[in-house]
Amino acid sequence: MSEPDPLAGSSDAPLDDPLDDWVRVVADDLQLDPDAVDIALLLDVARDAAHGVVRPAAPVTTYLLGLAQGQRHGDRAELRVLAGRISALLAARPGADAGPDVPEED
What we know:
4 helices
């Protein structure tokens, strides 16, 4: 008998968003709070790193951001502060235009 696919969803709970579902599955497996993940912010940082440096900078930069947040036991507010620091580094790179966008807190 095969293991159930955790990404397949249940018959009574359709997938709203595959990315949200994936984050919930991974966060649960890693014993993390999925609500602590700011997907939009991470995608913005990844986009800005990919466009401001080179494409492989996207996953490496978001990993470093997560590592820094974890070491500080930070919350979403701390994540935004750290992302702002990365944005400043990207904006200071030679040839950078107006700089990357970090979404404002809701």
